[in-house]
């Protein structure tokens, strides 16, 4: 964000646009595999809802 003069919010938006487009091209299986390797919260960048396990 700093290099382009944007804000963190616009950087997330821009990354989300690109990653959700890539996700549409590569398919759900590969996206699920990639998202499973990332920390919580990154699924939204791929245009996916992140379901959380319910506490017992």
What brief labels describe this structure?
56 residues, mainly alpha, DUF2267 domain-containing protein
What overall form do the CA principal axes indicate?
Answer: globular
Supply Rg.
13 Å
Q: Runs with pLDDT <50, length 5+?
A: none
- Helical stretch count? 2
Protein name: DUF2267 domain-containing protein
Organism: Streptomyces parvus
Description of the molecule:
This protein is mainly α and 56 residues long. It has a domain at 8-46. The chain is 50% helix and 0% strand. It is built from 2 helices and no strands. The longest helix has 19 residues, at 8-26. It is globular and about 35 Å long. The mean pLDDT is 88. This is DUF2267 domain-containing protein.
How is this fold's topology laid out?
Blueprint: H1 8-26, H2 28-36
Give a short synopsis of this structure.
The chain is built from two helices and no strands.
């Amino acid at each position: 964000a700093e290099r382009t003069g944007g804000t963190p919010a616009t950087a997330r938006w821009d990354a989300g646009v690109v990653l959700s487009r890539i996700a549409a091209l590569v398919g759900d299986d590969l996206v699920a595999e990639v998202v499973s390797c990332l920390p919580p919260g990154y699924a939204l960048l791929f245009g996916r809802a992140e379901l959380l396990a319910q506490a017992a």
